[in-house]
Amino acid sequence: MKTLAFFPVLILLVLSSFSLPAQQAGWYKGVAYLNNNEVVSGKLSYDPELKLLQCKSDGVVKVFAPHKVKLFQYYDDELACNKVFASYDNPVAEGGRLKSFYEVVLTGKITLLRADPKIRVKQVSVKPGPEAGVKAPAFSTYVETTVYNYYFLYEDRLLKVDNFKDELKSLLEQSPVDFDAFIADHNLNLKDIYDVVKIISHYNEASKQQSLILL
Known about the structure:
This protein has helices spanning 164-172, 179-185, 193-214, and strands at residues 28-34, 39-47, 52-57, 60-64, 69-76, 81-89, 99-106, 110-126, 139-154, 157-161.
């Protein structure tokens, strides 16, 4: 299985986009690296439901399925961040041969990926502040957030994450760092995606330092 190190891209961790509603497929300036070593640049539009990438260049639109593309990236003007997607064999497909696109959240010894965004509507209770008046009652409202399926890419294996707490701890057992102490010292929650990213980032940095010591 390929690694992302072969591609000249800058991976940006965008925590602010984790809970934003899923966007409609728009057109963004970007570049796609195809499996035939061709590089296509222009306007890109990705549909996460159909899992198809459209590339518009010189007035011509081409459509690519995941098995045709190694990686693509574009700059999202609304979120003000780079978005990077790579294609891998789907670990839940029979035989593991059905390729799909995965958004790259974080790279390193453990690479964190996500896919299949879905809108979740949650009812929350809001208590007005003092400026609303002493007798202002609490009220309910609805908040839209986006939820994803998450995956670990670890030692060339793509692993679907069903339970961050159990599966991440299983990987961290291989680390020389005392992650139980790290999690406790920083009051981190393995059920919170923001905290999971902090833990994986720390693990990746520790693994990098250990590799330098061994050289």
